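# step 3/5: fold
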Amino acid sequence: MTSTNIQSKRSAGRVDTAQDDLNNASEPVGRQIRELRRARGLTLSDMAKAIGRSVGHLSELERGVSPITLDTLDKIARRLDVSISWFFSHAEQEDSAESAYVVRRGARREINLSQAGVREELLSPHLNGSLEMVLTTFAPEAGTGPEGRARKGDEGGYIVSGQLELTIDGQTLSLSAGDSFQLNGTGSHSCRNPGPGDAVIVWSFAQANY
């Protein structure tokens, strides 16, 4: 899949009538997946085969019955020809002089995968630049999933609090609050929170490829 920023996907009109539903801030990720899949003209069987899951499991993900891990969401996003960023909810934010530059704490857009113990909050004010910043919170024992996530550009992170196990090419690194890391634009990695409390990480993604 060729990685393209979210704004260009919207301007190309490739999501058709699902757009209004996808912009609903209260809409679960599973429903967003279903609406976008249908807008792409894909059946449950088509999607399940593409991401290596059963039709029944995919149906449960769309209905919110089973938790969606980040590695599964990454596979789904690739098949639907969007980036994970597409699934950020649209928080209400005043149209002000600062809104192009500043995101107030209460106005963050988020992807809430609470069943899997993960919450992603967008720190960037928009999705059409060359940089994205994301605040990730992993509950204890939560993470990206065992299959990890393929990188589509350079990225790095800073551990705000808690502990993080970062596995890159079979090597597992133990990080704690105050540590930071940087990864090149190819390959894959996985993350897990081994600690007793939440792990909070600020991520930076080059070329808006998250």
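# step 4/5: annotate
The longest helix spans residues 29-39.
# step 5/5: archive (pending)
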